[in-house]
């Protein structure tokens, strides 16, 4: 604030100095020039030079004062936005396209910074100068001042009309820019699919259509801007022309000296730029207001998944995971549908590996997401060691329960950093910490059968690129699994994270998981018979409830729906090239038994 105030003061003083120059001119015209005393002009001319130089210096000072604070405000707003995006629940991100968030974080905040350090300062200073300048004009000659003032009234009227229309277009344009960013992001992200299906041209034409809408909005904005410019250019000129006629008549009648007339027009000339800039500044301020609104759309979004006021704490839970009469429905789910999860009851004992099976779309992924509060239950509770997961802070809960997903996201960082993401305490430089980090990394990579990481060009320090694109799907999944394992959780929730592995590798991963993480509870969404067979018990999700829990063979014997689900999983496996699934399953059964 002090820097902005000082900058505005510098701009103000610079313009006030500009307003004093006409007064000196009046002295020159009415004094030395009228008297024919050329020598007396020199000190007054030097004074004009001095005033001009000071004005220039003050303008430079104005810029210099706000550069630092302007960028600081921008950086702080960007950090606040990023922190908020991290904090907001997954349901928020389901609703908001990434391009809209991106355009807010980048272009909107850049616009706000430019307005704060340039628009705000100049608008403030210009408004004061227009007020002071018109006051000076009135004091020089009230009649001329009044003509100038009355003639400018249409300008305020045009400005007021402009404001309403321009705001609307400004919002539309910035939202369309966000949509465009989403389109670019999606097509870059999905470039392989677009190319594989030869849909590049289609994507281009839909992108063109979006770009065209944005262009049309920009043209409408420019048209509105052009309209206000007409008023801004014509009104002062008409006012000056009228003043000139009346001024010359007053001078001819001896009611005004020539010096005063010169000073009047020189003052009006100084006011020309502040008046002309009104339209530009108004448009700029409206764009900045829209950008600010869009920023606060996010910042004011209510987070429905928050930490409790008095959180419970458990240093090392045993790992009993229980679903107790759990109900859940997505916010945007139509009313005609019942709850997706409709009274789920399930207890996974400490150290047990429980497979979760069900038809596609039955809600398995949703059920796993409730364990770490990616979504909150809409009824009932999920409990860790008998304590509602909502009673822990989210940070603690996510330390106790780690997740790995089918869609393995890796960040643009080294293998090491990706795998140790959930262990920030291992990031230190001390030798003991580094040795422990190395040990955890080794163990996690071994369990996840991700030894290939050591053969990468720079070993575990290899950067795996945007979303690990340079790795195969199976390699990415194994690193994501290693990440979940390295977090040393009490409960491991795996949402089909082994789908891209061949059956034999999957069996090795699960065998390692069992031996090394014997005291870790695991809930695994299974899409393959092989995964099911390696679990201690299996839970069957059907019509929003867990309708059967038991070993694979018990369920095969007792549940017709289970037999149906397993046979459809086997069909899937055969269709996806897993022709030897049965054989592999057989050998794994033996391995598991041994
Ligand atoms: N973010 C969401 N918003 C609204 N509905 C959703 C959302 N995610 C999933 N759904 C819906 O909820 C239902 C269950 O989805 P879920 O992903 O939990 O099923 P699943 O059993 O894991 O399926 P699959 O075996 O195919 O992975 C589906 O009908 C899906 O369309």
TrEMBL record:
SMART domains attached to this UniProt entry: AAA
Topology relative to the membrane: Multi-pass membrane protein
CDD domains attached to this UniProt entry: ABC_6TM_Rv0194_D1_like
Localization in the cell: Cell membrane
Acetylation among keywords: no
Pfam family, one: ABC_membrane
Domain ABC transmembrane type-1: 5-287
Keywords: ATP-binding, Membrane, Nucleotide-binding, Transmembrane, Transmembrane helix
Regions crossing the membrane: 42-61, 115-136, 142-162, 228-250, 262-286
Name used for this protein in its record: ABC transporter ATP-binding protein
Organism encoding this protein: Agromyces lapidis
